[in-house]
Amino acid sequence: MFVWPKDDLNPEQVAAITEPGSVFLVACPGSGKTRALTYKIALELSKLTTAKAWVVAITYTNRAADEIHERIERLGVDTSQLWIGTIHAFCLEWILRPYALYHPDLKHGFRVIDSHDTEQMFTELCKGTPERLRPFECNYYFTSEGLRLEATDRRRHAAISGLLEKYWAHLRANRQIDFELILYYAHDLISMVPSIKTLLGSLFAFVLVDEFQDTKEIQYAILGAILKSAGGRAKTFLVGDPNQAIYGSLGGYAISRTDFADLCGLELTEKGLVMNYRSSQRIVDYFVNYNVHPAPIIAEGRDKDYISLVSFDRLTSNAQLEAELVRLIRFNIETIGIKPHEVCVVAPWWIHLASMTRRLVAALPEYSFDGPGIAPFARDIENFWYKLTRIVLTEPSPQLYVRRLRWAGEVLAALDQAGVDTAQLSRKSLLRECNSIHSEQNDGLPYLREIFDLLFAQLKIDFRAVPTLVEHYVAFFESSATRIDRLVREGGVAFAEITTFRKVFATRSGITVSTIHGVKGAEYDSVIAYALLEGMVPHFADDNQLEAAKRLLYVVCSRARKNLHLVSESGRVDGRGQPYEATRILAACPFGYDDIPPRPGG
Amino acid sequence: MHISKVQIVNYRNFSRADIQFNRGINTIIGENGSGKTNLFRAMRLLLDDNLLRMAYRLDETDFHRALGSWRGHWIIISLEFQNVSQDEAIQSLFLHGVGNIEGGAIGTATYNLIFRPKASVRAKLGELQEGDQNGLAEILHAITLDDYETVFTGKSTADFTNPAVYEALVGNFAEVRFPDELEPPEIGGRIPGIMSITKEVSFTFVQALRDVVSDFQNNRTNPLLTLLRGKSGEISAEAMAPITALVQNLNTSIIDLPEVESIRSDIRETITDAAGETYSPSTLSIRSALPEDADRLFQSLRLFVGESDDGYEGAIHELSLGGANLIYLTLKLLEFKYQTAKHAFANFLLIEEPEAHIHTHIQKTLFDRLNFPETQVIYSTHSTHISEVSNVENVNILGRVGGACEVFQPATGLQAGQVRSIQRYLDAVRSNLLFAKSVVLVEGDAEEILVPVLVKQVLGVSLDELGISLINIRSTGFKNVAVLFHDSRIRKRCAIVTDLDATFFDAVPDPLDTPAISKAKEKARGARAAGLRRQADLQEFANDNPWMSVHFAPHTFEVDFVAAGNASKVVGVLGEIYTDVATIALAKEELESNDVERFGTRALTMASSAGKGWFAIQVAKLIDPDTHIPDYLAGAIFTAHRPVSTAILANMLDYRLGHIRKTELYDADDIAEMQGQIQAFRAGQVDRAGIRDAMLASFPADQINAILAHV
User: Fold this and answer.
1) Chain B residues lying within 8 Å of A423, measured CB to CB
2) CA-CA to A430 of 20 to 30 Å: which in A597, B46, B387, B544?
3) For A323-363, what is each residue's pLDDT tens digit?
C-alpha cells in the first residue's frame, strides 16, 4: 500500500483521497488539486489486487497527463496498470481501435485528422456557399442526443448543417475522423454494442476525471455508461472547480454530483479543498468576487501575506496598449523583482495575442517569450510527426530521459498503429537513432524534413509508402508552413530558425503569453490581462453572459500569486464599428485597486 | 474456456486445415510426418511465450510447399475459443482483445496470426488490372521476406480455410484479381497494445523427447529446477539463514582438511614442474561446489528415485528409461499444476506423443485420470494404445494426402448412438482403423486370415504396402464402423466385403424332405432373404458416398473361394479334416465337380465341421501364386487402394512374370519381351492400357489379367 510522508498532503486532501467510495471533489484554485489527484492515483494503483485491472485517469491536456504520470513514477509507484490521457486518447485507445470492427463507418480502419485539416476543409466547403458561411461558424460538437452547433445565430444552422453533411461524407469517403467524431463514434459504439461497456467496466478499477467542469455531456455519458455497467466494482473520482468552467461554448459544463451519480449508478461523496496555497489573501479576496458557486477559500500559501498590487485600468486606449503592457512588464520585473518566467500576459482571443506577442518580442528584446503566437508549428498531439518532433528537437539529458523514453514509446505505438513493423525497434534504440542524427540546416522546416529523411533511412522504413504517415506529414508541414509565413511576415526571419523551434519544447524560461483558456491550471507571480471587454469576456456567443464573464475573470484572477493587472482598453471596435465596453461585471466590482506604480503611502 | 477450432492456411504441410477441439481431453492421431508437430508448433506460435518471437521470424520455409511460389500468399493461423463469458471479470482483458461480439453478447473469441505482405505491397497488388499477368509477375518477383509483416488480430469473422474467403482476402493469383481493400474487417482488429494473450492464459507444452536424462542435466530444461525456482522465492530468509550458515561452515571446514591442502600444493608443484612458472596458472584452489547463496543452494537439490524394492534410491541417470520418462512427465504436469494455480480461467496443456515418455500400461490409465479443472489437454499420438482410450468425438486425425496434411474429425455429424457403437468398437478391437490409409471391412475370421495371404502370394505385395487395413467386423454390422468414412468425417476409402448368401442348391420346400433337409432349406432361404436385404441396405448406405464401396461375395466366402478356381487348395486340406478314405474321395470329387451345389455344400460342411477359422488357417498354408483371388475381393481391394501407383503396379507385374518364368511353361523370349515392357512402363514410356494389353496378349492365362481389370 502506498504511503506518503505526512507533510505531503493536508488533512482535507487526505480526507478526499482516503474516502473509500467514489468522490466528487470540488477544489478551489491553488488548492493542490493535481497533487490530490496524483496521490489518489498512486494510492489506487497500490491497492490493485489483480494484474487485469486498470486505473484510468482522464486529464484535460496531454501535458497534464505527462506531468501526473511522471509525478507518480517519482513517488515510486508502479504505473504499468495506469492509463492516463485525454478523453480523446481514451476513446481512441479503449473504444475505437479495439472495437472499430463493430461500427460500419470505422470497420475498414480510420485515421484521425487534426484541427488544421478540419479548418482547411471548412474553408474549401465554405467557398461559394450562398449564405457566405465562414469556417469558424461551422464548429460543432455532439451530445448524447445529437449534433450541436457552436454558431449562435439559429438562422444559419440549416446552412451549416448542410455543409457539415458534406464534410462528414468527405471524411467517411476518406476513412477519416476528427476530434468531435472520436467522441461521437465512441458514444455510438458504447450504446450500440453493450458488450463494450461490460468489458471495459470490468477492466477498470477506478476512473478519475480531472477538470470535470470543462467536460462535455457526451464525455460524461461515455464514462457514466462504462461505470454503470461495472455495477459498483469500478469507482470514480471527479475533481474540478465549477467556478472555473470556461468551455461552455464548446459544450463543457460542471455536472452536479447527483446527476453524475445517476449516470454511473454510484454514490458519490462530496469533498472539498478550500485551502489556497497559491495566492495572497488580497488576491483571494479579489477573485472570490467572481465566483458563481460561493465557497469558502482560505489563503494558506507562502505568499498569503504578500502585499499584492491589484490594478484595473479602463483609461489606456488601444493605441497605447502595447506601451502600457511594456510598462507593466518592466515594472513587475525591474521594479519589484518578479522573475520573467513568473510573468504572464493573457487576453481572451488568440487573434489579439498573436500580433501583440510579436510586438512585445520586438519591444522587449532583452526578454524571451513563450506563447502560442510564436510556436512555429501546431501542437497537434495526435500527429505522428509532432510526436517525433518532440524527440528530435530535445537534447538527450538525464532530466528528460524518462519523458523522452515515453515519447519514443508513443512514436513506436503510432508506427505500429500505422502498420509499420516495429519488431526490430525498442524505445531505447529509437532514441539512440534519433540522438545520432544531425543536420546543419538552420531553417526549421527544412531541418525537420532532412532529419526525418535521415532517421527513416537509418530505420530502413519507407514512410512514404504508409498512407497515415504521409497524411500526417502533409498536415504537419502545411500547417507549420502557414504559421511560419505569418510569423516571419510579422516578426522577422528568426521565427523560421531551428533555434526558435527548439524553444517550443524547452522548459519555461521567458514571459508567458497566453489565452485565458490556455492558462487553465497554471500559476504565475504576476498576471497581466487585457482586452477584458464585453463581447470578449464574456464571449458574445456564451449562453449566460453574466456567469460566463464571472468564470473567465475568476480563472484569470486566480492564476496570480502576487500581483494582478487588469486592463479594459478603450477604443477597440467590433465588426460593425461599435466600440467595445469594459466587461460589465468587472467594471461594477467595487474594490480598492492599486495604482501602478503605487502612490507613495497609498 | 477452451480452444474449439484451429484453422491453418499455407503453413508448412498444411494447405487448409480445420482442426476441431472440445473441452477436456483431445487427441491428435496421425502417422509420422502427417503434421502433428507442425500443428502444435502453429498453436505454440500464438500461445507459447517461449515461441512467440518466432512468429516474427517466419520465413519462406514456413510456407506450404505445394503453393509453388510463396510470394504474395499469406500464412494464417487462427484459434477459436468457446465457452467465454463477458460477465466474468477475469476474462475481460482477454475478450477486450479477442472476443467476438455477436447479437449483443460474446459467444466466441478468435485470435489469429497473419503473416502477409505489407500494406504497400498489398496496395500494389490491389491496383493491378484483372488478368495483368505481367504486372503480377513483376510485383511478385520483387517480393522478399522484408516485405512481409506479422500481425496478431482478434475478433475475426472470416472462415479462413474457405477457398473463396481466402481469395477475397488475399486474391486470385491465377486470374490476377486482388482486393483493393487493405483493411478487411473480417480478419479482425489488431490486438490492443496493452495486452498479451500469452500472459492471459496458461500454456504448457511437453515435447516428445528422446533423451530425458540429458534434459534433467540441462539447467534450462530440467523440470525439477523449474519447480524449485518457482518455490525458491517463497522461502523466508529466516528459514534459510541457519542452513546457509551451516553450508558456509561446511565449505570452509572441508577445505581446511590437511589432505585437501596437500593435494592443492601437489597440483601446484606438479604444474610448475611440468610447465614452468611462466606458463602455469597464477592461482589455483580447491573448494566445495556447494552454493552458499540461499536460492542457488535450494536449486541445487536433486531428485532421487527408488525403482526396486530393495530401498535403494538412484539418481535420474540410474533409472530405467521408462521410469525416467514417467518422472519427467510427472514433473511437467506438476509444473502445469503450479501454473494453473495462478490463472483460473484458461489452461492449455499440449503433450506431444506421450508414448515417447511412458510405458504402454501407463499410457492407458494416464489420460483416463488426467483431469485438471478448467484445463484443456491436447495430445498427439501415433500409439494405438492411447488412441483407443480417447473419446472418438475428441479426436482429430491427421493424414498425409500427397504433400499436404488433411484433417478428419471422425465423429462429425453422427448421432449419439452411432458414436457409442463406434466407441465400443474402437475400445474393443484397437483403433488402427483410425490410422489406416484405406480400409477393407470383412465379415469374419476366414477373410481376415486368407485375404492378406492371398494378396501377398498372388500379387507379391502386402496389404500394408497397399496401405490397406483389413478389419474384421465379426458380424454383418458394417454400418456401425463404416459410418466413419464420409466427406465430413474420415475422407479415406472404405470397401465393405460381405456375403450375399445366395442359395446354391434347390431350396424349394419339398414334402419329401427329411426334417434335416427341410431345416437346412429353411435356413438357406432365410440367409438368402437376409443377404438380399443387406445388399439393398448397404447399397443405399453407400449411395452418394464417394469414399464407400460395397462388394458382394455371390454366395459365401468359402464357396466363392472354390468357385474362383481354387478347388485344389481345399482338396489339399482334406487330410486335415477327414480320416475316412471314402469320405476324402467323395469330398475330392465334389470339390472338383464344378457343380456349385456339390462343391458349395462340401466346402461349407468342411468349414463348419472344422471351424471357419481353423479351416482358413489350413487353407492359408496352401495358398501360392497360382491361387486365384475371387473377383469381388480384387474389386474391393483395388477400390479401397486407389489409385495404384505405377511402381506398385510394375512390382506386381514383375512378381507375376517371375512366377511365370519359374513355371518354365512359357517362351523365354516372350518373358524377356514382357520384362522390357514393364521397364518401359516404369519409365513412363508405356501407359496403363498399353501394359494391360501387352500382358493379356502375352500371358492370357495369368491371374494378373483379372486383377488389372480392376486397377
Assistant:
1) 56, 150
2) B46
3) 999 999 999 999 999 999 999 999 998 778 878 887 888 88
Cα gap B546→B142, rounded to integer Å? 44
Radius of gyration of chain A (CA): 24
Alpha-carbon distance of B104 to B110, in angstroms, equals: 17
pLDDT number for residue B355: 76
Q: What would the pLDDT profile of B152-164 be if each residue is shown by its tens digit?
A: 999 999 999 999 9
In a mutagenesis test of the B interface, which of A101, A191, A469 is the best target, namely the one with the most B β-carbons within 10 Å?
A101
- Contacts for A329 with CB less than 8 Å, ≥ 6 apart: A343, A345, A360, A364, A367, A511, A528
What residues of A are in contact with residue B87 (Cβ under 8 Å)?
Answer: 198
ipTM over 0.85: no
For chains A and B, CB pairs below 8 A equal 77
CB atoms within 10 A of CB A182: 22
Structural Rg of chain B based on CA atoms? 34
Q: What is the pTM (predicted TM-score) of this model?
A: 0.80
B105 contacts in A (CB within 8 Å)? 195
Helix (H, G, I), strand (E, B) or coil at A83: strand
Residue B220, Cβ neighbours under 10 Å: how many? 7
- State how far the Cα of B55 lies from the Cα of B670, in Å rounded to an integer: 62
Query: DSSP string covering A26-71, please?
Result: EE-TTS-HHHHHHHHHHHHHHH---TT-EEEEEESSHHHHHHHHHH
Task: State the pairing for strand pair B189-190/B202-206.
Answer: unpaired
Q: Name the 3-class secondary structure at B251.
A: helix
CB A276 within 8 A of CB A300: yes
In B, minimum Cα distance to A464 occurs at B120
| CA–CA distances in Å: residue A480 to residues A196, A350, A430, A502, B105 | 38, 17, 24, 14, 46
Whether residue A203 and residue B96 make contact (CB cut-off 8 A), yes or no, is yes
- Average pLDDT score over chain B: 87
User: Residues 148-207, chain A: which have Cβ within 8 Å of B?
Assistant: 193-196, 198-200, 202-203
Instruction: Identify which of B104, B181, B189 has the shortest CB distance to residue A194.
Output: B104
Dist CA B155 CA B254 (whole Å)? 64
CA distance A356 to A326: 11
Q: Which of B54, B101, B111, B112 to mutate to test the interface with A (most CBs of A within 10 A)?
A: B101
B213 touches B327 (CB < 8 A):
no
Calculate the dihedral angle through the C-alpha atoms of A149, A152, A155, A156, rounding to the nearest 10 degrees: -50
How far apart CA B674 and CA B687 sit, in angstroms, is 14
Cβ contact B92–A196 (<8 Å): no
Give residue for cell 481354387: B566
Distance CA B370, CA B373 (A): 10
List C-alpha distances in Å: B330 to A99, B326, B327. Answer: 43, 6, 5
Q: Is B270 exposed, middle or buried (0-12, 13-18, 19+ CB in 10 A)?
A: exposed
Instruction: Please report where in the chains the cell 514393364 appears, as a residue.
Output: B678
d(CA A412, nearest CA chain B) in Å: 11
CA A256, chain centre distance (Å): 22
A419: chain B residues, CB-CB within 8 Å = 118-119, 149
Helix pair A384-392, A467-491: axis angle to 10 deg: 60
For chain B, the straight-line distance linking the first and the last C-alpha, in angstroms and rounded, comes to: 50
CB contact under 8 A, B56 and A202: no
Q: Which residue has the cell 460589465?
A: A584
CA nearest A83 in B: which residue?
B194
Pick from B347, B305, B278: nearest CA to B213? B305
| Chain A positions in Cβ-Cβ contact with residue B101 (cut-off 8 Å) | 99, 102, 193, 195-196
